[in-house]
Design a protein that fits this description.
single chain, alpha+beta, four-stranded antiparallel β-sheet, 3 helices, about 10% strand, globular, disordered N terminus, IDI-2, signal
Length: about 150
């Protein structure tokens, strides 16, 4: 009986160690952006777990308004993370200090991030700081992945 309980506890501890559990400090620091949660064993090969970003949401979402996007020749993203489809000629660019790129055939686009999409969002000063080879941000958040809506 004790051996089976010990085995169960070892398995439980191992499983729990694979999932990042946010601390109260992380929750406070990230605020409305939320803490990015993930299972270490589910991260793609090549992703550095030590370089996974702490906060899930994109810090630029509240700032990228239709007016700013039009000025920058960029797609629009609302505070709720809904992304208007992008049919412009620029396949990538810089808006409000963050890189984005077209990533689908029907207007889909994404914010880009380091560490195969799991790291910090790519920052920029001009469109030349961004490129099509950057990886879309990954994770369970409004600013992650390749999507849009009309």
């Amino acid at each position: 009986m004790q051996l089976s309980q010990l085995a169960f506890l070892v398995i439980l501890h191992t499983a729990m160690a694979q999932v990042n559990v946010p601390s109260a400090a992380d929750i406070a620091e990230c605020g409305e952006l939320g803490v990015l949660t993930y299972n270490l064993t589910d991260l793609p090969e090549g992703v550095d777990p030590k370089s996974v970003r702490k906060c899930a949401g994109h810090p630029g979402l509240p700032q990228i308004t239709p007016e700013i996007a039009a000025r920058d020749g960029a797609p629009v993203s609302t505070i709720l993370g809904k992304r208007s489809c992008w049919y412009g000629t620029n396949p990538y660019g810089c808006s409000s200090g963050f890189c984005w790129k077209s990533c689908g055939s029907d207007g889909e686009w994404c914010f880009t991030a380091q560490n195969d999409g799991w790291g910090a969002y790519n920052t920029c000063n001009t469109n030349f700081d961004c490129n099509e080879d950057m990886t879309c941000a990954q994770g369970d958040c409004a600013g992650c992945g390749c999507s849009c809506h009309d």
